[in-house]
Design brief:
homodimer, 11% strand, alpha/beta
Chain lengths: 594, 594
C-alpha cells in the first residue's frame, strides 16, 4: 500500500487533514508518469520523525486544494485526450433523454412536475462510442499488446510494471473499468494480482433520499477509500441522479440497469422486454457507467432449484428475472440476447459484472445447487464476453459460513478462467442485523485472502434500512480493513510497510503519526482525546488504557534504554545475547519431569 | 446455540426486552437439572408464529424479574451448598485486608483517605479452601470420574451429556473456572468441543473510572453475552473494586495478580518479590477470582529475543516480568516458584490462564522466535499444573496477519496437549486504530473456527483509551459474532438453528421476530425505525432498502404464491420441476461455442 521508496511525487500540495491550526497531517501529492498529463494522486503522510509514507488515494480532486471543484460543473475530464488520441471512437447525437428515464411517465401527482433544478448544469457533452468495427476496450488494447495511459496510470498506483497490468488484463484476470464516456475517472484495476478493492453502494430508494445526498455519499465514500461506487437508485430521478454522480466521480461507477428498466414498466417484472432493457443499457452507457451488473445467469431452469431454500432469491435482479422467466415460461431475455449485449458494452468499454442472482441469502442456503448452477452459466457467459473483447468480472455471495467460503472462490476461479471475483461479504452468520458490516467483514477478509479481487461493502443498515453518511463511512472503513488484511496475507509487495510505519509510531509514542497513518485519523484522534484531551498527552509516553506506570511499551523502551546507551546499542547488545543463546543450542528450559 | 427441542424450561417468567407496552419479546426461563437447586438460565425468544427459540444466556439474575437483585448485597450464592456438600473445603480466618491492597500505602494527599463507602457492604464471609491433602478442583473430580453439579449445569447449557463435559475436563481439553470462594457464578465451560466463549475486560486505570462504573461494566458486558470478565484494574481501590465485581458477577472473573502486586511496590518492577506476588494471589483467591493470568513463561533467556522486534514486549505482565528479570539478571520468580503457585491455585480451584507475555504487538512481530519460545515453556508449565490438578488454559496473541493465524492454534494445541486456547483477537492489521474490534474480530472468528476455545474481546478504544459502556457493548457484540460464526463453521450441534430462525423470520417479514432474535435487538429495531418509524412498517412486506416494488424476498414469495396455492404447494410443485430437471441430466446450458 505504501511506496515509500518509489518515485518522488512530482508536486506536493499542502493540506491538513484536520481543521486549520493542526501542524501535522497529510498532503495530496502526485506521481508523474511518462507524460505530463499522467499524474497519479497519492496520499503523502508526513511523520514527525521527518519520514513520510505514501498511501493509495481514492479521494479524487476534492482533497487537492489547488483544484477548484464544483459539483455543478463536474470534475475535469482527465482521460479525454487519451480517448480522443486513440482515434477509435466518435461522438454521436445519442439517445434522447425521456421523462420516463427519471420515472416520470404519468402526470399524476406522484409523477409530479420535473424538478428542473435537478438537471445537471455542467458542460454540454455528446456521447461517444467505438467506430464501426473498432475494438475500444482496455481488453482489446491489452490483447493487442498496447499499454494505454490508463494501464500506465494503474501500474504507478499499484507499484508494478505496466507490462504486468497489460498481461493481467489481456488474460482476463483483471479489469480496468473505464467507459469512454466517463473521462473523469482516475483509472484503477481490479484483479487478484493487485491490491484488493472495495466497492461502496449508494442510491436512493422509492422511500427516501435526494440527488444531493447521493452525490455527497459518493464523494464521502471515496474520501474514505472506496475504489468504485455502485449507484443502485430505485426511486425517482434515476437518470439525473446518475448524471450528477458520474460527472463528479473520480472512481468507476457501476449500476444494475435492470432496476431502471423495471421503473420504466412501473415495477411490473412481466412487462420487461429486451428492447426496454437494451435501451436502458445504451442510455446508461452513453452517460458513462463503467460497469454493469447483468443477471444473465438466472435461467428459467434454475428457478425451481430455489424452491426449497430458506430465503428463496434475495438478489433483486435475480428475483426480477426469475419472476419474468416464470411469468412467460421462457428463457431469460438477458441470456438469450447476451451476444447482442456484448456488442453494446464493447462499443463503450463498459465492463460486465456478471450478477449472482441466485446467491444465498442465509447460512442455510449457502453453496447450494441453485447458486453453483448459475455460477457455471456465468463461466460460459464470461467466455462469450471475452470473444467480444468485453472486460468481465463475476459477482459472488452473499451469506456463507466460514467453512464454505473457500469453495466459492476456488470454484469461481476454475469455472470462470480466473476472471476477477467480486463478492458481497460474505456474511458469516445471520444472527446480527445492525452489525452485518462485521459479520460480512470477516468473510470478506477471508475470501479476499484466497483470491477475490473486489469486495462489495455491507453497511450496518444491511437488512434494516437505507445507509446514511455514517453508515457509508463505517462500511467503507470495515471493508478497507478486510481488503488490507487480505493484502497482508497475500504478501502483496509493500502492503506491510503501512502497518510497520504505524507500529513504529505506536512503539515510539508518536501519537500524531499514529492518528495520521490510521485508516480513520479523525476517529482515532477523537477516541484518544476522549480520555486524555490535554495537548501534552499527544507526546506522552503512555495512554489512558494503562496509565504511565503500566505501559508495556514504555517498560519495553526503558529496558532497552537502561541496559545500554542508545536504542541501537541496546538492540545490538540484546541481539548479541540472542545469538549466543542460539549458539548454545537454545537450551533454555529447565529439565522438568512430566 | 438453540436447543428448541431440548428440555422444556421449568418456569418461564414474563419479561419484555423493551420498555413496557411492547407485546413481543423474550423471557428469562430455566431448565431444571437432576436436582431442584440446579436451574440453568436460558433466554426464551417467543416468535409471532407461535414458536419459540431458546438461546444461551449469560446475563445472570439481573434479567429475571422474580429475583430481587441489589448490588450492595451481591448475588445469591448459587453453588454454596454444592461446595459445602462436597465436604472437602473448610472456612478459615483468611488473610487480613490491608490498606495497601487498595493502593493506600502512604498518607499523602494522593494516597488520601480511604473511601469507606466503597467497602462492599454485603453479607460477611470467611474464605474457604481445600482441606489438607484434598484435591478440590473440577479437574480432580473429573479425573476421579465424578460428575459435579457444576458439570451437569454446563452440560445442560451446552446441550451435551454430562459425561462429555467430565471427559473433556479430565483430559485437560476444557476448563470449568469456579473458585470455591465464588459461589455466585453460573457455571460455564471453556473448551474446543463446546460453544466458543467470549471474555470482556473491565478495570479502572490510574487515569480514570470508579468502582460503580466497573460493576456496571461487568453487568453490562454479561447482559450482551460476555461469558467471563477479567478485572484488569490498575488504579486505586483494586481490592475493593474486585470485591464488588466478584460478589455481583454471574460469570467467572479473571485477573492478572501481577498488576496489583506491582501497585504494592509503587510500580517499581524490580522491587517485586515472590512473597509479595504470592500474598497477592492468596488475597485474590480468597476473594474468589476464578482464573488468573500468570506470565510464568517470560523467562530471562527470552528477553533478548525481543530486541529486534518492531514493538518489543506489549503485554503489560510480560514487560513487568522482563524488566524484573533483567534488573536482577535472574530467572523469573514466577517460573522458579511455579510448583508452589500450583499448590495455592489448587486449594481454591483457581484456573490458570498461562499468559503470553511475549505475544506480538504488531504484524511485523507475529510468530517470531520470542513468541514461540514462550509457547513451548507454557506447554511445560501446563503439564506441571496438571500434575497439581490445576485447570489450565493458554493465552495467545495478539497481532497476526491472516496467513499466520493457523500456525498459532496448531502449535498451541500440539505443544500444550490440547489445553484450551484463549486468544486476544488476533488483530489482522495494525492500520486501523479505533476499529480494532473489527481488525481483531476477523482474526478471532478464524482462530476460533480452527479450535480456539475462548476469545478475549477487543474494543474500539484498543490502543487509544479506556473503553466506556458503548465500547464494551460493541466489543462484546463483535466477539459474539466471531464466536457464533466459528460455532457455525465447526458445525456445533444446534448452532445453525439460531440463524435459521432469524432467516425464516426475515423471509416471512416477521420484523419483530427478527429484532428479538438479533444479537442486539435494540440496535436492529432502532436502525429499522430510523427510516420507517411507523408501526405498520413492522408488518410490511418490504423495508426501506429497496422499497415495496423492489423487494427480492417479496418477489420471491410472490413467485411461490402466484404459481400455485399455498407456499407448501408451490414448493412441492417447484421441487417436482427441479426433480424432473435433475432426471433429465441437468442439461440446462445452451450449446455455446467457446
Amino acid at each position: 500500500m505504501t511506496n515509500k521508496d518509489a518515485r518522488t511525487p512530482a508536486s506536493v500540495q499542502s493540506e491538513t487533514s484536520q481543521e486549520a491550526g493542526k501542524s501535522i497531517g497529510w498532503h495530496k501529492a502526485y506521481v508523474e508518469g511518462s507524460r505530463s498529463d499522467l499524474r497519479v494522486p497519492v496520499r503523502q503522510v508526513h511523520l514527525t520523525n521527518g519520514q513520510s509514507v505514501t498511501l493509495y488515494d481514492t479521494s479524487g480532486p476534492y482533497t487537492d486544494p489547488l483544484v477548484d471543484t464544483d459539483v455543478r460543473r463536474g470534475l475535469p475530464p482527465l482521460r479525454e485526450n487519451w480517448i480522443i488520441a486513440r482515434g477509435d471512437t466518435e461522438e454521436y447525437a445519442g439517445r434522447p433523454v425521456r421523462p420516463e428515464d427519471d420515472g416520470i411517465k404519468h402526470t399524476s401527482p406522484r409523477g409530479g412536475l420535473r424538478n428542473l433544478d435537478a438537471v445537471f448544469p455542467g458542460r454540454p457533452r455528446q456521447p461517444r462510442r467505438g467506430r464501426d468495427g473498432q475494438a475500444v476496450t482496455q481488453l482489446a488494447y491489452a490483447r493487442r499488446g498496447e499499454i494505454t495511459p490508463e494501464m500506465e496510470y494503474v501500474a504507478i498506483r499499484e507499484n508494478v510494471s505496466p507490462e504486468v497490468v497489460r498481461e493481467e488484463i489481456a488474460a482476463g484476470r483483471a479489469v480496468l473499468p473505464a467507459n469512454v464516456n466517463h473521462p473523469e475517472i482516475e483509472p484503477m484495476i481490479i484483479g487478484k494480482r493487485f491490491l484488493v478493492k472495495v466497492n461502496a453502494n449508494i442510491g436512493n430508494s422509492a422511500v427516501t433520499s435526494s440527488i444531493e445526498e447521493e452525490v455527497e455519499k459518493m464523494t464521502w465514500a471515496t474520501r474514505w477509500g472506496a475504489d468504485t461506487v455502485m449507484d443502485l437508485s430505485t426511486g425517482r430521478n434515476i437518470h439525473t441522479t446518475r448524471e450528477w454522480v458520474l460527472r463528479n466521480s473520480p472512481v468507476p461507477i457501476g449500476t444494475v440497469p435492470l432496476y431502471q428498466a423495471l421503473e420504466k414498466v412501473d415495477g411490473k417484472a412481466e412487462e420487461l422486454t429486451w428492447e426496454i432493457y437494451k435501451d436502458t443499457v445504451i442510455e446508461q452507457a452513453e452517460q458513462g457507467v463503467d460497469y454493469m451488473t447483468v443477471h444473465a445467469g438466472v435461467r428459467l431452469a434454475y428457478v425451481p432449484l430455489t424452491a426449497n431454500r430458506k430465503t428463496g432469491i434475495v438478489s433483486r435482479g435475480g428475483s426480477i428475472m426469475a419472476a419474468w422467466c416464470l411469468a412467460h415460461h421462457k428463457e431469460s431475455f438477458l441470456y438469450e440476447n447476451f451476444e447482442e449485449l456484448c456488442e453494446i458494452l464493447a462499443a463503450y468499454d463498459v465492463t460486465y459484472s456478471l450478477g449472482d442472482g441466485l446467491r444465498p441469502g442465509s447460512i442455510a442456503d449457502a453453496n447450494d445447487e441453485a447458486q453453483f448452477a448459475e455460477l457455471r452459466t456465468l463461466g460460459e457467459l464470461n467466455r462469450i464476453a471475452k470473444r467480444f473483447n468485453v472486460q468481465t468480472m463475476i459477482e459472488g455471495p452473499g451469506h456463507v459460513p466460514m467453512h464454505k467460503i473457500k469453495e466459492n472462490i476456488d470454484l469461481q476461479q476454475e469455472i470462470c478462467d480466473e476472471a476477477p471475483f467480486y463478492t458481497l461479504g460474505p456474511l458469516t452468520t445471520d444472527v446480527a442485523p445492525a452489525y452485518d458490516h462485521i459479520t460480512s467483514g470477516i468473510g470478506a477478509a477471508m475470501i479476499a485472502w484466497w483470491g477475490t479481487a473486489m469486495l462489495c461493502y455491507v453497511t450496518p443498515k444491511e437488512h434494516l434500512g437505507l445507509p446514511n453518511r455514517d453508515d457509508v463511512k463505517t462500511g467503507v472503513i470495515t471493508y478497507k480493513i478486510a481488503a488490507h488484511a487480505a493484502d497482508l496475507a497475500k504478501g502483496h509487495p509493500g502492503a506491510q510497510e503501512w502497518d510497520d510505519a504505524l507500529s513504529d509510531a505506536r512503539f515510539e509514542f508518536r501519537w500524531e503519526d499514529q492518528f495520521n497513518l490510521a485508516l480513520d485519523p479523525d476517529t482515532a484522534r477523537e477516541f484518544h482525546d476522549e480520555t486524555l484531551p490535554a495537548e501534552p498527552a499527544k507526546t506522552a509516553h503512555f495512554c489512558s488504557m494503562c496509565g504511565p506506570k503500566f505501559c508495556s511499551m514504555k517498560i519495553s523502551q526503558d529496558i532497552r534504554r537502561e541496559h545500554g546507551g542508545s536504542r541501537t546499542e541496546i538492540e545490538e547488545g540484546m541481539a548479541q545475547k540472542s545469538k549466543e543463546f542460539a549458539e548454545a543450542g537454545n537450551r533454555v528450559y529447565l529439565p522438568i519431569a512430566d
